[in-house]
């Protein structure tokens, strides 16, 4: 086989294979964490624990757990959740005394309910919030992390 013919065959093979390589619609390995910040306004020092509920799952965090991604184990009983141990997919931490962070794996619920509890077990505040998610990574086609503006819970 001549050099010209071999070159032409390689060029034809490359041209035939190029669309398979260059136009791939595959997404990279996917996994992310979405977050919700809650700013406690008023007497933030009275809050012993904060609870966030979304889509039937609740997560509770105590005030002395100031940071990190470790959920309370076992979770505190929830006055509203049918199964208080079902906080799968929701994790929490406190950035500082007034700001609490909740991490929802890849979930992005339309709304959440937030409760602030006193050490006595009294509910100091409870409020439902609609969420306005904005993409902060990834792509529309493949997905990626989203975040929502901070929620303000008044005590």
UniProtKB/TrEMBL annotation:
Region described as Disordered: 65-92
Biased composition range(s): Low complexity: 78-92
Signal peptide: 1-26
Annotated keywords: Signal
Name of protein: Secreted protein
Gene source species: Arthrobacter jiangjiafuii
């Amino acid at each position: 086989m001549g050099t010209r013919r071999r070159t032409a065959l390689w060029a034809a093979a490359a041209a035939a294979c190029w669309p398979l390589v260059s136009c791939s619609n595959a997404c990279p390995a996917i996994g992310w964490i979405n977050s919700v910040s809650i700013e406690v306004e008023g007497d933030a020092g009275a809050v012993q624990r904060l609870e966030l509920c979304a889509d039937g799952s609740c997560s509770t965090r105590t005030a002395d757990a100031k940071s990190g991604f470790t959920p309370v184990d076992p979770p505190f009983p929830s006055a509203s959740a049918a199964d208080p141990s079902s906080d799968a997919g929701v994790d929490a931490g406190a950035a500082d005394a007034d700001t609490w962070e909740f991490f929802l794996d890849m979930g992005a619920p339309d709304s959440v309910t937030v409760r602030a509890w006193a050490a006595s077990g009294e509910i100091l505040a409870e409020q439902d919030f609609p969420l306005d998610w904005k993409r902060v990574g990834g792509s529309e086609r493949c997905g990626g992390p989203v975040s929502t503006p901070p929620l303000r819970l008044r005590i």
